[in-house]
Amino acid sequence: MRSLYRRQLTMMVSIMLLSFTLLAGAFMLLSYRYIIGETRDSVIRNAGYISSFTATYYRRYLTLDVQDEFYSSYMASIAMISNSHIIVADSTGKILFSTDGRQFYAQEGQLPEDIVTQVMDENVGAYNGMTSLGGLYPERRYTSALPVTNQIGPLVVTQGMVLVAASASNLNAMWSSTATIFFFSAVVVFLISVIASTLTSAYQTRPLNEMAEAARKFGQGEFDIRVTGYEDRCDEVSDLAEAFNSMANSLEKVESQRAEFIANVSHELKTPMTTIAGFAEGILDGTIPPERERESLEIVVSETRRLSRLVRRMLDLSRLNALAESTVTAQETFDLTEVMSRVLISLETKITDRQLDVDVQMPEDKLMVWGEPDSITQVCYNLLDNAAKFAAPGTAISVQIIKKDGKAHTTIRNLGATIPPDELPLLFERFHKADYSRSMDREGVGLGLYIVKTILGNLKENITVTSEDGVTQFHFTLTLA
Fold first, then answer.
1. pLDDT band at 1 (very low <50, low <70, confident <90, very high)
2. Does an H or E element contain 251, and which?
3. What does DSSP say about strands 396-404 and 463-468: parallel, antiparallel, or unpaired?
4. In angstroms, rounded to a whole number, what is the distance separating the alpha carbons of residues 149 and 215?
5. Nearest to 111 by CA among 75, 153, 162
6. For 295, what's the count of Cα atoms within 13 Å in the CB-facing half-sphere?
């Protein structure tokens, strides 16, 4: 497996080498063109001066005399000023005189035929290029050659040719210096990039390694591990660490809820199953006398129904959780007052048996809201059933629905035992039942209010509970249509 450090180092070194290569190539090309251009212009210009001067000398003296101090001094001066060599040859390419950059003297030799042909060609009449003149020079020089012509009457007579050759050693020296500077610069930048890449990679990979180790510990069941120390970085790593810790908190909470759920389910299932098994065995082995068998069977039936309700509630809870995790519940408009009225009618027997009065304050007209009718029916049923179950006999249950700020506010009150303040936040948790109600609620399984909270949460609505001086009040909202 390739590490992030190696990938980053490889990428940085590759980019650095590519950049230096392109930069060096561009610099070499531009410098070459510049120096060659300067040398070419200088050589061509000097060759023109020398050709013109030599032609004038021919017209005046009808010959060239290297011993002529004026001519030799002029040629030597141009050679020294331009740092170049000068060659004077006849029309056949035979060298007559030349300089070595300082002195002007007679010399024997022959110019290359191709250069002579090109200079003497009337259509071309010049030569410019890099050449060693057939071995006359140990290295290639930039050379410019022009004919020496004079017009005698109507005729143009070519009396010879002149060549100016400039050394390209300064270009080679510059390239050598540039290569040296480039090499040392590349080495320094390479070392800096390695060090910077090492520090940067360590800075970036340390939290990733910690998160990987924490994830492995999560897999082993250690849910209390957190990635800390990166809150002040203010970059993507700090965001990742924050998201990772948020995920860890959620996993820890889910694991805690799962363990609590299993413990609660085990407890809730064990109680009715133990009761059913105990009374059934008592009837079978004769421990329970015949006159009490009917009473025992009624208890068995009651516990069986309680077990059935528990299973049904758990199935409802599973369905609600599945809806919450997949998509938002499809909503439609319905009349909230009609739903509440139907629930009150369905609980009429229970309310009457407990000798309770009902105080209803709802709009006379339809009150259309957004939601899922069956789910809201379950919300109203669970809240009213709880109110009737825990209300003191002979008291009243209050149901109020009002419109305010685009919401339908529903309040359900009953008069009974006061719920302790520390119990209020726990009422909507799974399988939780307030201590004061355990002896009163033999039929409940502790899932009703949790289902209410889940349904309203899926609809993005709120529910609150208060309990003071024996008055317990549940309040929830729905969006008006």
1. very low
2. helix 236-285
3. unpaired
4. 92
5. 162
6. 5
